[in-house]
Amino acid sequence: MASLTLDKVRKAFGPVEVLKEINLAIDDGEFLVLVGPSGCGKSTLLNLIAGLETATDGEIRIGDRVINDVHPKDRNIAMVFQSYALYPNMTVRKNITFGLEIRGVSNQERDKAVADVAKLLQIEALLDRKPSQLSGGQRQRVAMGRALVRDPDIFLFDEPLSNLDAKLRVDMRTEIKKLHQRLGSTIVYVTHDQIEAMTLASRIAVMKDGILQQFDTPQNIYERPNNMFVAGFIGSPSMNFIDATLTEEGGKLALTIPRDGNPIVLPLFEAPESYRGYIGKDVVFGIRPEALTHKRTGSDEPGSQYVNFDSKVEVIEPTGADTMTVIEIAGKEIVARVRPDRQPKPGESMTFSADMSQISLFDPDTELRI
Amino acid sequence: MADIQTYSHDAGWKNTVLRGLLYLILILFAAYYLFPLIVMISTSLKSLDEIREGSLISLPRVVTFDAWNYAWNEACVGVECTGIKIYFWNSVKMAIPAVLISTFLGAINGYALTKWRFKGANIVFALLLFGCFIPFQVVLLPMSQVLGKLGLASSTPGLVLVHVVYGLCFTTLFFRNYYVSIPDELVKAATIDGAGFFTIFWRIILPISTPIIVVSVIWQFTQIWNDFLFGASFASGANAPMTVALNNIVNTTTGVKQYNVDMAAALLTGLPTLLVYVLAGKYFVRGLTAGSVKG
User: Closest partner residue to B192 among A78, A132, A139, by Cβ?
Assistant: First the structure.
């Protein structure tokens, strides 16, 4: 087990730069999730750590050791692939011990190691089967077994759950988390699924177009996204973006959202210093659906963090626990999360509460957080 | 609905007629193609007298394997009357190493071209592909010069070399196309497990290549066994392969033309390729259509 540092890592394929100056550092035992849309460079980054590709520039360190020029087999890493990449001609047992065999580990040690791992992953009964005789979930376990048996410094997971059906994916996610808690190993995990990222990570690195957008704990990324991309990518349903103007009345800052003859004015609950420069200017007001609800009790009292406004309901989408209510503000569809017992009818007008303590403001030009 | 039913009733009647016609045509074609073989077999089982008296298509009155025995043991190839058997072994000694070597090299080439892509891999592959379209006749002269310089002229090893070089393009094409469909992650996983180029090839890639190995072996064996031009050009006399010897038997006339012996020798020459198809034919079709390997 070890820490991992990426220092100004760049990767270019010919003239195409797929990774631009990535700086990341995680401590021993951390669970780092690289997340982003397809083509963002997250898998390339993982391949760089694995040694399957070489970095064009920069330094990759495991612990204190620079590993840029170290062969993959000498990096003491193990990797789980999206397609599992089990050797089709070998039994599960052979698949798991292949790496040990190549490294010249003795027969007895191999047998013991495979027994331990099989017990941990509950695949004892499958050891003498071929991969083609296994279900998707079982193959997934075997692929993890192959990584675990080596007891590596760092585990690398390349979208390991994306070939599983929805139910199994959730189960395996929990198991991976349990495994991490139990073994305390350092893990780098690539996914395009933001829910996987949120649930598993101790820290998330959000990537887009080869650029690291934000590197932080899941909660910070959720609550204080660096820019509109991160804000929109993390969270489901995604954050609402509303064009607004930052105004000042009597020393209090407020957001004014234009609406035919009847603009919505939302006084800010907190006004950080950084907002000052934007008074009188256009901003993008970001608010997550769960901060936009039916009218809350106490929202009429002075000093409340909630601000009420009325709007017509366009569509409702019940999910059971909550009802997603689509309203239209300034020509944009906005999703609010309403308790089922307060659920309106489409076409009705209803009072909504916006929790102004949970908002984000973005610069409309740079798309960065203000 | 009524319309459709009337239509389908009509169609049922038409279907039967069309189907009958189809079978008739198929049977005719099958007979057309099988007829020469039947004539060959029946002629090879007749005695010379019976051939002279009867007609070409009549079945043998007395079945005799004398002609087969004579073709195998005694027939004259030029001035040597040793039968076709020594040439059969010449062909075996040529075909088996040539098939094995060209298949093995094709497998390594295909593996390197797909799983260890290097700069210019596509150009190398394109050039190899180009080799498939070079006609035999074009390479005859340069090849004989090369064989002469290597000291392999008129020898079985020389023929093996020629067939390996010529077959490489095809076997590489087969294996390359097969390996393209094998996920790269398999090689990546083995690399991380610590295996190198040849370990991965022997332990992982080759064991899952059975279908394409069969295709390559059948293809190469048929090509090499049936080849006449290279055999006639680069190996002469006692080193000639069976196809060349067959030609010589048929062309060696000592008085009466022994049709039954000619037919028996021709059938003997064709038997090994037939055998390979019968034994491995189902893999051949499967291998040619196999698109992907299931994990």
Answer: A78
Q: Global pTM? A: 0.80
Reported ipTM? 0.81
State the fold for domain B85-289: MetI-like fold (1.10.3720)
Per-residue pLDDT tens over the stretch B55-107: 877 888 888 888 888 888 888 777 777 888 889 999 999 999 999 999 999 99
Residues on chain A touching B192 (C-beta within 8 angstroms): 50-52, 72-73, 77-79, 99
Q: Which residues of A touch B208 (CB under 8 A)?
A: 88-89
Are B62 and B54 within 8 A, CB to CB? no
**Cα–Cα distance, A262 to B122 (Å, whole number):** 65
Q: What is the DSSP string of A119-142?
A: HHHT-GGGTTS-GGGS-HHHHHHH
**Closest-CA residue of chain B to A149:** B193
Q: Which of A84, A99, A103 sits opposite B295 (nearest CB)?
A: A84
Maximal C-alpha separation, chain B: 82
Q: Which CATH number fits domain A240-362: 3.30.70.660, 3.40.1180.10, 2.40.50.140, 1.20.1250.20?
A: 2.40.50.140
Backbone phi, psi, residue A165, to 5°: -75, 165
Whether residue A312 lies within 8 A of chain B, CB to CB, comes out as: no
Q: What is the CATH number of domain A4-233?
A: 3.40.50.300
Q: Is A72 in CB contact (< 8 Å) with chain B?
A: yes
State which residue of chain B sits closest to A146, comparing Cα positions: B193
